[in-house]
Design brief:
296 residues; alpha+beta; 6 helices
């Protein structure tokens, strides 16, 4: 009899679970992102007015399933590609311009997100993460959260919305630095050439001034183990050589950064000419200043 009762109980529970709609199912994850979210205003999805969505975050696949209808399959919102493999240490951020809630989905606090309608409603515009831009958000920014009262409070108070969005954007900027520093560790020196390093420092500083870089270039060191020789493809004669260096910089807020740069020397047939700036990766990595100065 006990076995029969247990079996019937399991079947009953299974039926209840199966009977639940996609908007009623309970999803959980270690980051407390999954759950039912109320929208600050209805959003039209396939001619349906949606005011509630159900999030199912799956960290292993970097996906956020968004259920907006009882019958439809979920929309899949991808995590920002830059943060894949690093979200456990640097934070979880979603960015998908094709989702129905907005161009970017940013977490303001646990259980509260905003969806920005477009690419540039709110962002940090420089590498030091302190120049916050916030355009007029009225009727453009969608607030969604697990608590209805909190959603209403934030959506109706522009200054509060701006404050929370600024904090989140700065956090996003800092997390991006965290990702980049993990993805691109501070390189060890390659070829030792003090004269070349000094020449490179001068040309990089000159370029930084011309280009309007806000950072102060502290020093340069050679990353490459040797020069890369450039030849004429038709004649196979040498025309120039390039080499990669690391430019170590200090930002206006006192933080230290590094970026990979390249310098070049043209060949005139008998000798190489002056060193000049040839390019930079534009991947500026922030790191501890003590670590940054160890090769100076």
């Amino acid at each position: 009899m006990k076995k029969v009762i247990i079996t019937l109980t399991i079947l009953l529970i299974s039926k209840i679970i199966l009977a639940q709609s996609n908007l009623e199912k309970i999803f959980t994850d270690e980051f407390n992102i999954s759950g039912i979210y109320y929208l600050s205003k209805p959003v039209e999805i396939f001619a349906k007015q949606v005011s509630v969505v159900n999030f199912e975050f799956i960290p292993e696949s970097y996906k956020l399933n968004m259920y907006y209808d009882e019958k439809d399959t979920p929309e899949k919102i991808a995590m920002n590609a830059t943060f894949k493999q690093h979200y456990k240490t640097c934070g979880v951020f979603f960015e998908n311009s094709k989702n129905y809630l907005g161009g970017r989905i940013i977490q303001l606090e646990t259980g509260l997100f905003i969806a920005l309608a477009g690419e540039s409603n709110a962002y940090v515009s420089n590498g030091s993460c302190d120049n916050f831009i916030f355009t007029d958000p009225k009727n453009e920014i969608l607030v969604l959260g697990k608590n209805k009262a909190r959603v209403k409070e934030v959506a109706s108070d522009i200054e509060l919305l701006k404050k929370l969005t600024e904090e989140s954007c700065i956090k996003y900027c800092g997390a991006l630095k965290c990702v980049l520093s993990g993805k691109y560790p501070f390189p060890e020196p390659g070829m030792k050439d003090t004269k070349l390093s000094d020449e490179a420092l001068n040309v990089v500083r000159s370029h930084a001034t011309t280009a309007g870089w806000t950072q102060k270039i502290e020093y340069c060191y050679v990353k490459s183990k040797d020069w890369t020789i450039i030849t004429n493809k038709l004649t196979n004669t040498i025309v120039a050589r390039t080499i990669r260096l690391i430019a170590v910089m200090k930002n206006t807020n006192g933080s230290c950064q590094w970026e990979e740069v390249e310098v070049k020397q043209d060949f005139n047939g008998s000798a190489y000419g002056k060193t000049y700036f040839s390019g930079n990766t534009q991947q500026i990595i922030t790191l501890d200043c003590v670590e940054a100065m160890k090769y100076k």
